Automatic annotation (TrEMBL):
Record protein name field: Nuclear transport factor 2 family protein
Organism lineage string: Bacteria, Pseudomonadati, Acidobacteriota, Terriglobia, Terriglobales
UniProt cross-references to SUPFAM superfamilies, sorted A to Z: NTF2-like
Domain SnoaL-like: 9-90
Superkingdom, natural source: Bacteria
Organism encoding this protein: Terriglobus albidus
Amino acid sequence: MVPSNLAANWIASWNSHDLDRVLAFYTDDFEMSSPHIVNIMGEPSGTLYGKPAIRAYWERAMGLFPGLHFTLETVYTGANSVVICYTNQAGRRCGEILFFNDEGKCFRSAGHYE
């Protein structure tokens, strides 16, 4: 089951700009898909695997957007997943789907952007 305060904690972690805090939500081998991965990392599939590769992506992205800030809009909770809808620092609406294992760690996520 997904904790009720997960989305607020996830947003706060991103707004702290502390990647170790953000990465604590995820398994070591998690998979992430985002159209931004294509542009920022040059990975045509738009998917990265594992904390080292995704850390490198997020470090680059945070360097490109030093004012990164998310405002939580709404949350949709499933049996073992959550959709976190937020507005970013540019005023664009975004949605992240996170899938969780039995230990409560995210093993797969996908970013969606307006």
